[in-house]
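DM from R.C. (forwarded with permission)

"hey, sorry to bug you on a friday — could you get me a structure for this? deadline for the figure draft is monday and I only need the backbone to look sensible"
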Amino acid sequence: MPIKTCVLDDWIAKKENITLSSRKELNNWHLERIRALLSFAGENSPWYRKKLTGFPLPRSLEAFASFPTMDGTDLTDAGLSLLCVSQGEISRVVTLHTSGTEGLPKRIFYTASDQELTVDFFHHGMAGLTKTEETVMVFLPFQKKGSVGDLLMQGLRRLGAYPIGFGIISSLEDCAARLLERQVSCAVGIPVQFLALAEYCRQQHIKLPLKTVLLSTDHLPLPVRERISSGLGCEVFDHFGMTETGLGSALECSVHKGMHIRENDIYAEILHPVTHEVLKDGSWGELAVTTLTRRGMPLLRYRTGDLARFLPGSCACGSVLKRLECGGRIRENGLTVKLNEALFSIDTLVDYEAEYEPMEKTLSLKLKFMGNGFCEDQANIEMKVKRAVFGQGLNLVFERILVSYYSVDRFLDAYAGKRSIKIRGK
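My reply, with the result:
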């Protein structure tokens, strides 16, 4: 069966009236959009007007790489001076208090047209996972207007699918029953929650009708992907999004080798974490984004704090869109990602919490296993954990590992957001 080109290519080509035959054409289009955005931001935002003083419009993307960057501190400090429209045109404000946010809260402003861009992306992006008249269940917050679940469900309705909002999973029994009752073929949710669902269904011998699952909000480790795919008997797709970029940012195609970036709305760069120079494809660095089409509060070379890289070469699907691979937060130096890969390879483990004491090089883990039948002794668990963690080369980071654990059956704790290691002293 031939591989289908990423659904985003056709959408972008038609929407922007460009032929995506090569990176050169897309780069030229990017330069035009960046120049227009710089003019718009400089004319309408007091903060950008000052920030861009002395920087003539770039004549190449290489010249744009010399423009100043910004980060979360700028969003906090600049506040309303970042707006490029009147406050009356703002339809939604999001205050970020997530684990990935450092320092004081950041406020992100959207106009109705900004949110429409996200709905349009979800509409066309989900066409790679579902189709007209199929039922899609959304395991994300959806009750509040403009929330990620609400925007996703709007996009699914445009596609002709039948979206059902469920929200965050607390009862695996209820979740499985609803999926069976409505014969849901596609679902969207959070990696660790679907890992728990997969383990629950495997242990209870439940066969769900799911064909595809889209996972978002957190890093998707390979062992988690494989265990979900095996446990639920479905194809798993990864998605990357940020509140700052309007939620939707990059989406996997059926090749599953990196997430294709929504390049009509986002110009992405990988920067050296210290010098901020642009790095070549394949090199790990800090992801920076420029929101090409946002009107309320556009971002110019915004350093996200995320460790990432562009996969070199072209995707086997034939898309010219860049492919993103994420590696956790810069401040953690990839530790969470390595721990994810190590720990989730342990059978029946569905979640964990981690705390690191750098001075003593001690890692404290609280592990969550699925099933009342879990009864391994402490020594055996500690042996498995050390073997998995040290197998990732982390024996140079952690000299001592302290382990505690408990099991769950059909109920989950409240989801606490994106996983990160709590580092004492930071």
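R.C.: lifesaver. Residues 185 and 210 are 4 Å apart (CA to CA).
me: no worries. The first helix runs from residue 7 to 16.
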